[in-house]
Design brief:
The protein contains 12 helices and 8 strands. With 279 residues, the chain is an alpha/beta fold. The longest helix is centred in the last third of the chain and has 26 residues, at 210-235. The two termini are 12 Å apart. The mean pLDDT is 95.
């Protein structure tokens, strides 16, 4: 039975998923296919490389550096998040906390990284073949938050955050042959998202990237539909949703170490449900 895991990301809320995967590493829980969106893709890479605690360091420590995210980056580089710093300077073999690329490649699990083409609006699913040592651009492509970041260039194409086109890629997991799926959310499972918070950015984005702007407008609707579908699968015993009961006001870019640490611990504890689900 092919088992998949989906991590929807969510900026710094992704620390919840980091806790989930650290529990999985501690308990030896393995998946046949891992699908990551935005920060969720970075969580999965460290999980597949067997680097327990690596993601925690990034969220809890590195994210507070101005090189990582700051108004200085936005003014001088056009992006609040310096994705090249995160997935290059820090992550490369000569970086402060390198990805164990050899172990990542050796791990037999399949991996998909979701990104959204900025111009066409089409969804793009990268896989392990798109990773090269010290070239982790697909993580930047999947994590480029519209307006907050410039679209991220990778192999001649500009990309925005994967959540624009497939925010909860459970259907993709089934399409790839997964018969049961673990779905990691970073918002409470019964929260209904609205497009109100996105629509201000939609108006800005529409000037240069109208199709990406439409995706951003539809993101909340697609997210709600994806969660609803995951719940249907859960009722049939084909999925389990791992989600925080509350997030205490943490949004995509909230920088509060105590709150982030608490969310990480929630993820670690909530992941116990995965062991029961997989039997």
């Amino acid at each position: 039975m092919k088992t998949g895991v989906v991590d929807v990301g969510g900026g710094l809320r992704g620390i919840y998923g980091a806790g989930v995967f650290d529990y999985c590493l501690l308990k030896g829980i393995q998946f046949d296919e891992c699908i990551g969106v935005s920060a969720g893709s970075a969580n999965i890479v460290a999980y597949l490389a067997g680097q327990r605690g690596r993601n925690l360091r990034y969220y809890r420590d590195y994210a507070f550096r101005p090189n990582y995210m700051s108004l200085h980056n936005l003014v001088h580089g056009g992006s609040y998040l310096d994705l090249n710093y995160v997935y290059g300077v820090l992550s490369n073999s000569d970086g402060e906390y390198p990805l164990d690329y050899a172990k990542f490649v050796e791990n037999p699990a399949e991996m998909k990284v979701v990104a959204s083409e900025a111009v066409s609006g089409k969804v793009k699913y990268f896989d392990k073949s798109d990773f090269l040592k010290d070239n982790y651009g697909i993580l930047g492509a999947s994590s480029a938050i519209p307006v907050v970041c410039r679209p991220y260039p990778f192999h001649g194409t500009l990309y925005f955050d994967g959540a624009l086109s497939d925010p909860v890629p459970v259907q993709k997991a089934l399409h790839d042959g997964c018969e049961r799926v673990v779905v990691i959310l970073t918002k409470p499972r019964n929260l209904i998202r609205t497009s109100g918070g996105d629509d201000h950015f939609v108006r800005i984005l529409r000037r240069r990237y109208p199709k990406a702007a439409r995706n951003l407008h539809l993101r909340a609707k697609r997210y709600n539909e994806g969660v609803a579908f995951a719940k249907e699968l859960e009722e049939k015993g084909k999925a389990v949703i791992i989600a925080p009961d509350q997030i205490a006001g943490i949004n995509t870019l909230t920088k509060n170490k105590n709150m982030l640490e608490h969310l990480y611990q929630k993820g670690f504890k909530d992941a116990e449900a995965i062991k029961a689900f997989l039997g």
